[in-house]
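[[Per-residue structure]]
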Amino acid sequence: MPKPQYNDRKEALSGMALEKILYDASERLSSQILSGISPEREMSFKIDVWELENLLLPALNATVNEIRIFDEMKAEDFSFELKRRRNTLAHDLVNLLIECMRDAYRDDVVVDHIATKVVSIRFLKRVGNIFAVKREFTNMVHDVLWHLLWK
């Protein structure tokens, strides 16, 4: 049985580093998106997708730069996919957030699309801890980023 090559070990380490970068990026992105959401304090809030796009852009660019340290080609591919999906990525993330909230709170969440890129989310009754929604949403953001990186 042949011994593993150094390159295999290096690739495994860089794969783990890329996974950590994606996980950290998903934490940052989900925290930024969820920063204004607190159903314990407010019963309704609005999400402006255009504003969200501008808010997420620096975090995504930082992620590209972190990936570039380990794999230049993956960073270029990831950057290309981000540019290609720039107009829809924030909207897709908002839709994932809405899906998470509907899964957690069922009929207690009402979603209205006020304008093309403005979404209003209203809670019909006070809801408890939103920690499970945050965790699930972070996992969904991670899946989106992973898909963009390994496409």
